[in-house]
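Suppose you are handed a protein chain with no further information: no name, no annotation, nothing but its sequence. What can you learn? This example shows the usual starting point.
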Amino acid sequence: MIGGSGSPPDVSPAIPSLWPPRQQGIACLRVASAIVADSAERVESYQRPISSPDAILPPLRALPLSVICARDHHSRGLELARTARTWKGARTPSSLKRVRQSLRRNAVNRRTRSEAKTLVQRASEIALGRAEGPGPEAVAAAISALDKAAEKGIIHANNAARRKSRLMTKVNAAHLLDDTDTTAPTAAKKRTTASKTAQRKKVTAAKASKAAAGKATDRPRTAAGKAKVAVTRASRESAAAKRRAKTGDAPESS
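A reasonable first move is to predict its three-dimensional structure. Written in structure tokens, the prediction is:
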């Protein structure tokens, strides 16, 4: 070695192992070029006369990898991540669609829950005497709103039952429903489209089963049924022939 003894220290900076192979290769090339340039400067300095040991060039200093990579960042077009990815939400199209659906459903369910809560509170205020209004109609509206919300799954069935129980406790304590006519005929329950369709299907299935039962003796669907029908028909025909023979012999004997 010129101007001293020993070998120069390892000045190559640590290359992150988590980088992609292409970025690792680019970083190694840039580190090597920097080392070559600094070594050339050292050789030129060694060619000068050495007056004292203190004139020896100090060891090569390792350049930071961020400086090497940023030297021609814009010319090379290298993009390196400096911060960790923090977004942990939905990314795929299906998950983004689920997010939109949940937002829409949440808005609709919020209206239903708010309406039920308002009606229950209004009926409770009337029962406690803090507000004026028709008590039976308010109680019926509150109970109907809770039942609809529980039927749609917006609130739990136990939640609706608990709130109805608490409301009716206040109503009964205030004797709010004592003046209502209990003997009045109740209004007919409105049939929904689903119930009508189910009833129609039930009637159609009953008619079909009845028709199949009526035709079972004439047109059996299995081989055993066909054989049974044939045996029955043959026995009937033989019995009829015997009866005809007996009726034919009777006039002759007379």
